[in-house]
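dumping this here before i forget
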Amino acid sequence: MTKEEIMFEKRLIELSKTAYHRDIVTFSDFLNLNELHILHSIPKDLFLSLYETFGGYEYAERQMVAFLPGALYYTVTYPICMLQVSPANIKYAEELTHRDYLGAILNLGIERNKIGDLAVRDKDCLIFCKDKIADYIVEQLTRVRHTMVTVKKLEPEEFSYKPDLQEMTGTVASVRLDSVLSIGFPLSRSKLTGYIEGGKVYVNGKLITSNGYHLKENDIISVRGMGRIIYSGIISETRKGRYFIRISKY
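structure:
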């Protein structure tokens, strides 16, 4: 573990202590996949309070962690705001990518951990961000590449997003990680093994480096640079003992 990762682990433990001693809910910034892995790998007895994670919508990749005081149930309102970025004039709009939108935001001087997922759609982009910087983005983000844009803060009743999922099916010898990945990403076994052993595959935010990791229904698998899939489960078993499975791909 690097020095930065050790410091990050200590910050999470301190947030847990603050929640416990002050009897308040405390929040982190948005955590990336590696940081979520660190969170889930910390022994639970080092935390004085329970925690949960959320990124603004179901299946979000970048998520905040909320530390909850005591053992009571809390309805947590996360300090997350959703913004809608749209071309000022659709006629002259370029075809913008995730990288374009993210680059424009970071060029405003905003740190990456203040921004959650970006959902690029046909004619706009939804941005999940910490609520304290939402107004700043609304005022300052006027251009993405050469396209003039407008930014709107969505109200709570509009604050909903569900990603488009492509349902896929296929047969596998077992529900090992590498086998299920081969359905969503038609690559050679050697390439998939390289991704897994190279530390680029996460299951429910936890780094998995074993090809033989056994998946459970509704596990979310994230592959850096390639996307995410949800393992939905086994549909049936063939006469030859293979499994017919269903996945959903982002």
